[in-house]
């Protein structure tokens, strides 16, 4: 095994640590990004994805780990921001030896980074990783964990959407609203159930036919469209990106018909400035790292010794946090994403400052 730290050729100067991990025998190629430990050990999932290049993998882990720092700060957690990516197709190269090799790299960081599930990794994978490191969460109930974190992720997104609906239409409900869900994976399919229970009408899409078929069977009242373009140009009140990031860009924002954007995907804005494009069109964007914090709240609770009701109560507070950020944005005359960033940065600075107080 070999570990080296590098940021050459990339803008990673704001990150505390970026670690490239490689194990030739198992085929492991991974990158762990630690953005900040100002609030405590970095916490964030492991994404297993067939990136086109190492540069793409690095770009993703830098963006995701930074987002986790802000997400954890606004969720009130005593955790900094980190993320890991494993470069490869999980359907072809994921094996027990590879996951255990990855676990040893996590262990080598000595607790600076706690990992969990993300795109391409599951509870069963975290159980394997945990055979080599104590710094893992998102484990199965059989091994003392909380199980699938997508349950509370979807619950938190629903709470954020309720707050956005209240801010836009005066009532914290999606009843009678048409919601477009892009991505019917672990989180999206659960979110659909919450929306239908609340009285919303749902239109959805996914590139994975199996995911589409699952929703067709379980929720036949959902309208399925062919792709994301058909979704965002349809007559919807709320757009919920629940797949990979970058869903909102210079091409999609001008044709978006929804008045509210609230979804589970990380890094929904393709580049800085998209939040202003949305605001200029009168579209309310509830920042992704605020509303999708339910999952990290769950895995953080697991570190304490998981209690589902306690974790769900904490995830329910996404409603209040989102509401407060939207009000602050209006008061300051800035987009909600800017208001959220300011609040997160303030907490990291103020709590991080306490590290300078000597404890005997």
Word description of this protein:
This protein is α/β, with parallel strands linked by helices. The chain has two domains: 2-66 and 81-143, Leucine Dehydrogenase, chain A, domain 1 (Rossmann fold, 3-Layer(aba) Sandwich); 150-293 and 320-345, Rossmann fold. 43% of the residues lie in helices and 16% in strands. It contains 14 helices and 13 strands. Strands 1, 2, 3, 4, 5, 6 and 7 form a seven-stranded mixed sheet that branches. Helix 1 links the parallel strand 5 (46-49) and strand 6 (80-87). Helix 1 packs across helix 14 and helix 5 (150-169) packs parallel to helix 13. The protein is globular and about 50 Å long. The chain starts with a strand and ends in a 7-residue tail after the last helix. Mean pLDDT is 93; it is low at 1-10.
Write the layout of secondary structure elements.
Elements: E1 2-5, E2 17-23, E3 28-36, E4 42-43, E5 46-49, H1 54-74, E6 80-87, H2 90-93, H3 96-108, E7 113-114, H4 123-129, H5 150-169, E8 178-182, H6 188-197, E9 201-205, H7 209-218, E10 223-224, H8 228-232, E11 238-241, E12 260-261, H9 274-280, E13 284-285, H10 288-291, H11 294-304, H12 308-316, H13 318-332, H14 336-353
Parallel strand pairs: 4-6, 4-7, 5-6, 8-9, 8-11, 9-10, 11-12, 12-13
Antiparallel strand pairs: 1-2, 2-3, 3-6
Family: Belongs to the Glu/Leu/Phe/Val dehydrogenases family.
Active site: 83
GO molecular function, one term: nucleotide binding
